Amino acid sequence: MKFSVTVVLKKDVLDPQGKVVQNTLNNLGMNDLKSIRQGKFFEIEIDEKDQKKAEIKVDDMCKKLLVNLIIEDYKINKL
Amino acid sequence: MKFSVTVVLKKDVLDPQGKVVQNTLNNLGMNDLKSIRQGKFFEIEIDEKDQKKAEIKVDDMCKKLLVNLIIEDYKINKL
Fold first, then answer.
1. I need a labelling partner for B34 at 20 to 30 A (CA). Which of A50, A79, B41, B55 fits?
2. In this structure, are residues A46 and A5 in contact, taking their beta carbons and an 8 Å threshold?
3. Where in chain A are the domains?
């Protein structure tokens, strides 16, 4: 079973990496850009047929390693 | 108009970062994990009301800066 996980910084947390990308795109002449924020993306394949159990396992991975819950939000989607 | 862009390494490109995450999760006792690949995620807000034009602009940003087309694939979604 395959899942995707997207991890983004919480709204009020500064995103210096995104800021640099934004400035660079502006310098490239793209003035319509209002904002850009960068995050992480994971594609996870798991050996578990029950969707609920699989989701719990993926959630566990996020909490234990992939996501810093203090500054980041995450979302799990089935692929 | 808001878009999300996910960037992942192409299938045949080695993903050392993902490999390290996979080993670490295995060491944490998660043996059901078959594979994990890490990529980038962007949340882009653009000042353009026409969806087609906006999509073309986002695609342009990807090609010019966000994505290395030689080793990476990308996908654009409207949010």
1. B41
2. no
3. 2-78
pLDDT of residue A23: 95
Tell me which residue in B32, B48, B60 faces A47 most closely, judged by beta carbons: B32
B40–A contact, CB cutoff 8 A: yes
- Topology adopted by domain B2-78: Mth169; Chain: A , (3.30.1280)
Cβ contact B36–A43 (<8 Å): yes
A40 to B45: CB separation less than 8 angstroms, yes or no: no
Which ipTM value was assigned to this complex? 0.88
> Residues near B57 by Cβ (< 8 Å), separated by ≥ 6?
A30, A32, B46, B48
The mean pLDDT values, 10 residues at a time, for chain A of 79 residues are 96 93 94 94 94 95 96 95
